[in-house]
Amino acid sequence: MDAIFKALNDPTRRALLDALRERDGQTLTDLEARLEMSRFGVMKHLNLLEDAGLITTTKKGRFKYHYLNALPLQEVIDRWIEPLLAKPAARAVLTLKAQLEGNLPMPLDAEKPSYVMSTYIDCTHDALWDALTKGDLISKYHFVCETVQGDFAEGQDVNYLLPNGAPMLVMRTLRIDPKSLIEAEFHPRWGGDETPSRFVYLVEPTKSGMKLTVEHYGLTPAQGGIADGWTRLLAGLKTFLETGAAHRFAMEAQA
Predict the structure, then answer these.
(1) Mean of pLDDT values over 109-135
(2) Could you give the 3-state DSSP secondary structure of residue 75?
(3) Which fold is adopted by the domain 83-243?
(4) How much is the pTM?
């Protein structure tokens, strides 16, 4: 937590976070052009933000892309604010649109993700993998769906149902590397544009727990709100695995 406050206590680093909030997935060259500072200076600020967990990066080919990672900030806020708030009511889920080029997924090393988020969880490798792949466990922390039918397995569908029993979305598993990677299509089922997008879970053991990274591909500029859903999902997953208690970071009701 000290690293987060230290990272935020600088106007240049806050400007870099603002830049990534406006447009995620920028390179060092992109960010350098926004600041009156040397390339080395910008790199130092980015490294400090990455060390604090406030940004996460992914390298595709010869380019390194930087993404705002909102989860640590949400966890800091929840430490003091969450106990003071009434449990929010569920609201209508966010509208998602995405379009793949044709029907075949592009290789992961050839496509820049639209969105990336990482978190660290104090749990075992097996516990994290089970929580990501088993429908009955997903239902304990998903921010909307109390019923999740099916388990993640190659070629299989996992159905997410809203509290009223209506379908919210279908996850169609494309690829699984056991205990390290899940790649799936994301099929919205709540009306409107039902064109699929694609996401990837990357699971990595660390010395003191597990690291989970989410990459989402094929999102349009209008779909920036999906970050809120991922933040709530990962916060619920982390709470569930570290406390053993089911918890949903439900979305606030809208008038």
Answers:
(1) 89
(2) helix
(3) Alpha-D-Glucose-1,6-Bisphosphate; Chain A, domain 4 (3.30.530)
(4) 0.65
